[in-house]
Amino acid sequence: MNVSGLSPQQLELQARARELAKGPVTQRAAEVDRTEQYPWDNVGLLKDARLIGMTIPERYGGQGKSWLDAVLAIEALSSACAVTGRIAVETNMGAISAVMAYGSEEQKKLAADMVLGGDKPAICITEPEAGSDANGMTTRADRKGNRYVVNGRKHWITGGGVSRLHLIFAKVYDDKGNEEGIGGFLAIRDETPGLRITKREPTMGLRGIPEAVIDFEEMELPPSALVIPPRGLKKGFADLMNAYNSQRVGAATVALGIAQGAYQLALDWSEERHQFGRPINEFQGLQWKLADMSIKLRAAQALVYDAARSGEGGFPDMLLAAQAKVFTSESAIQVVNDALQFFGARGYSRELPLERMARDVRMFTIGGGTAEVLRNVVAGALLKKKLPQTRDGWGKA
Ligand SMILES: Cc1cc2nc3c(=O)[nH]c(=O)nc-3n(C[C@H](O)[C@H](O)[C@H](O)COP(=O)(O)OP(=O)(O)OC[C@H]3O[C@@H](n4cnc5c(N)ncnc54)[C@H](O)[C@@H]3O)c2cc1C
Fold first, then answer.
1. How many other CB atoms are found less than 10 A from the CB of residue 389?
2. Whole-angstrom Cα distance, residue 22 to residue 335?
3. Residue 159: its pLDDT value, please?
4. Which residues make Cβ contacts (< 8 Å) with residue 387, sequence separation at least 6?
5. Residue 283 exposed, middle or buried by CB count within 10 Å (0-12, 13-18, 19+)
6. How far is the CA of 273 from the CAs of 68, 292, 396, in angstroms?
7. Which tens digits make up the pLDDT trace of 142-151?
8. Pocket test for ligand 1, best of 127, 373, 378 (most atoms within 8 A of CB)
């Protein structure tokens, strides 16, 4: 039954992505996790299947697909391999979508060519002292004559060390030292002296994509590297972050896909595994668990699809994207945990994918805006109020 109102083209796309997921992507998932190597082979597969750069407009070589189209591919891929799902997110949403919406012609062409060639752009916002409070960033770009000089440190940058294109957020200062607001700069690793990957984080899950510390030391960029949204630099950060709503929907989709994969494994196993002389799915305790898991997945999917649909012609709605990410990330953790329980001791073994899925899915209430901070976003939208979190911000809303 097509309960999600998908078009025949979308059903075809979904089937194609599922086919790819079932085959080589599933086969390599454990190895990607064990070796902690970026799955370049899978990037090749995604490229061949035209599942990366799908949302890039046709005039830049993409297919002009919708967010929902991207979501369908990401959902299918993530049920087999979350790392591959994340690559599909970041080659269709996030940094690439920000550049395609706000970049200059030259920037759009550069970014589109790189992504369609298989590069997963990195988005560099978070710093050691500025996580949820991104406005507190201290990385700075000082205008010095006909160039900007960037200094600072970012951490937990997904793809650091494999990504070439970087969208780097920094506080911009004019040549008299006056702060002009936060801007986003494009830089290419290995072609930009002063951009150095200085550490790889040892992560709990999602081990096939490096999370890195990146240092900028006297990194020189031309003014043409600055991505300036039409509303100008002062308001530009808000616009660039608006593009991030697509990434949030993408992150929610990966969590959804992982949980769907785990649920399917539990469902199949519940028929196969016998105890007390009967399949374990004849025990009501497990039947109700399956029912609850399926309800959470359906609700999460509806929220994610809705948020994706809200972005037609622009970016997903901030409230819907935040609601989808909070609910889906938290539900997915519960569903994967329950699925693992179905397998008893086997679920705890590294020979089965459940423990990997449990490690992978844990990330999604953290990265891309924590569940707590996104609840602030939801509350702010419902109350139609700014909810400043800084002490001196109170009362100023
Ligand atoms: C795997 C992974 C990949 C990532 N990839 C990227 C990337 O590519 N680029 C990038 O820029 N960043 C990336 N991040 C960073 C991520 O966006 C941050 O971790 C996130 O924004 C939270 O910041 P923090 O870790 O510093 O936590 P903190 O901000 O220090 O938060 C600590 C705790 O306090 C809570 N908290 C903070 N403020 C509030 C508040 N106002 N109200 C209620 N609770 C609050 C948080 O929810 C959290 O529970 C990634 C993180 C992970 C784990």
1. 12
2. 20
3. 97
4. 376, 379, 380, 397
5. middle
6. 37, 20, 60
7. 999 999 999 9
8. 373
Q: For the chain, which residues score pLDDT lower than 50?
A: 1, 395, 397
CA 247–ligand 1 middle distance (angstroms): 15
User: What is the reported pLDDT for 392?
Assistant: 79
Ligand 1 pocket at CB < 6 A: 123-126, 131-132, 156-158, 206, 211, 363, 366-370, 372-373, 376, 389
Can you give the pLDDT at residue 396? 52
- Write down the pLDDT at residue 330: 98
Relative to the CA of 370, which ligand 1 atom is closest?
Answer: 47
CB–CB of 69/6 below 8 Å?
A: no
Atom of ligand 1 at shortest range from CA of 159 = 8
Q: Is 268 helix (H, G, I), strand (E, B) or coil?
A: helix
Which atom of ligand 1 has the smallest separation from the CA of 128?
A: 26
- Within 10 Å of residue 218's Cβ, how many Cβ atoms? 9
The set of residues, in sequence order, having a beta carbon less than 8 Å from that of 120 and lying 6+ positions away, is 43, 87, 90, 91, 159, 162, 163
Mutate to test the pocket of ligand 1, among 89, 124, 125, 126 (most ligand atoms within 8 A of CB): 126
**322, 311 in Cβ contact below 8 A?**
no
What pLDDT is stored for residue 335 in this prediction? Answer: 99
Round to whole Å and give the CA distance between 32 and 30.
Answer: 5
What amino acid occupies position 50? R
Cα 57 to averaged position of ligand 1 atoms, centre (Å)? 31
The pick from 91, 132, 165 for probing ligand 1's pocket by mutation, whose C-beta has the most ligand atoms within 8 angstroms, reads: 132
Cβ atoms of 181 and 233 closer than 8 Å: yes
